[in-house]
Amino acid sequence: MPVVLIATGGTIASTLGPDGRATPTLSGRDLLDRVLPRRTVGVEVVDLPVAGSWNLGTDGAVAVAMAVRQAAADGADGVVMTHGTDVMEETAWTCELLARNAGIPVVLTGSMHHADDPYYDGPKNLADALVAAGDQHAAGRGVMVCMDGELHAARYVTKTHATAVDTFRSANHPSLGLVDGQADDGVVSWSSPGAPRSPLVGDVPGGPVPILMSHWDVDPELVEASRHAGAIGFVVEAGGAGNVNERLVPPLLRAIGAGIPVVVASRCRGGQVEPIYGGPGGFGSLVDHGFVPSAGLTAGKARIALQLLLGPDPDRSTAVATAARWFSELGAQL
Question: Distance between CA 154 and CA 23 in Å, rounded?
């Protein structure tokens, strides 16, 4: 079986309605009809439409990853997924965690302009992704995002600009390569082997893992309220190298004491948290009290990893140590 296209909606599938707003209306087959015919021969389509990728949820991302696994089990040589760009990096990361072992190339793509926009970039991006997924050297590089002619590893890629076409970047890491799906034969110029395989996680996500933003005058009651609502872990999006406003520290320490892991990610898109600073909220002090560095993952990716790692019924007696060990293994790969 050749490549399978899993179409989930997004801007690439959106057209303008009577109100002048863009919403997904195009099926996977509609998208293929806009691509050069030589790129679509034998491509099979699975439609899994979502009403706005920002509404997908971890359960939805897991379902998409399972669709990738199913395509591989059915004999697909590769998978291309069209997806909204707002959370493409999180879905790509979920697929990396759950479907990389399927052993086939998986490439996510989308567009920054809707289908009624004269600058519609969807067909080119889809053609590029189809070429990348069918390339003989694509296997083993992990799940990829293909946008604006560039290929990025799911682990590292982030959306850096709200509307620019060249928004996807891999902070601290090179892109995997360049692709030209418009060329007669399709050309992929590989420049990186991709990210290493991540440590294993479970297939079923656990309960809530809120992301708390560290900022001046932050309300510490957010921690207690989230615990009462069933939080099984926390991710803090901290400043710089991982420093957290001191108002959040006492309730988060109580959470750790109760067996609820706390992972700290930087709000910066370059670099990662490091135990440089001491004092109230300094990440050097926090590490000494059991706060876990995110190993370079963004807060959104760290949240997904923690949900899948802990699962639906985490053991409070081991959860903190489990999280610390997993993220330490991940960080050792950098």
Answer: 26
Please give the C-alpha separations between residue 219 and each of 2, 208, 331, in angstroms, as whole numbers. 53, 19, 30
| Higher-pLDDT residue of 2, 31 | 31
| Per-residue tokens: 327 | 């993220």
Give the lowest-confidence range in 176-185, 275-284, 297-306.
176-185
The residues pairing with 168 across neighbouring beta strands, listed in sequence order, are 159
Work out the burial of residue 103: count CB atoms within 10 Å of its CB; fewer than 13 is exposed, 13-18 middle, 19 or more buried.
exposed
Residue 180 sits in the same domain as residue 327: no
User: 27 lies in a domain?
Assistant: yes
For residue 20, the tally of other CB atoms under 10 A from its CB is 6
pLDDT of residue 230: 97
Separation CA 209–CA 117 (nearest Å): 37
The DSSP bridge partners found for residue 153 are 144
In the chain, the number of structural domains is 2
CATH of the domain at 38: 3.40.50.1170
User: Of 8, 11, 109, 158, which residue is the catalytic one?
Assistant: 11
Structure tokens at 263: 């992972």
Cα–Cα–Cα angle for 245, 237, 302, nearest 5°?
A: 145
- Does residue 23 carry a catalytic annotation? no
Range of the domain at 120: 3-190
Query: Is the pLDDT at 1 greater than 70, yes or no?
Result: no
**Helices (H), ranges, 100-216:** 122-133
pLDDT digits (tens, 9 = 90+) for 52-107: 899 999 999 999 999 999 999 999 999 999 999 999 999 999 999 999 999 999 99
The DSSP secondary structure of 36-104, one letter per residue, reads -HHHHTT-EEEE---S-GGG-HHHHHHHHHHHHHHHHHTT-SEEEEE--STTHHHHHHHHHHHHGGG-S
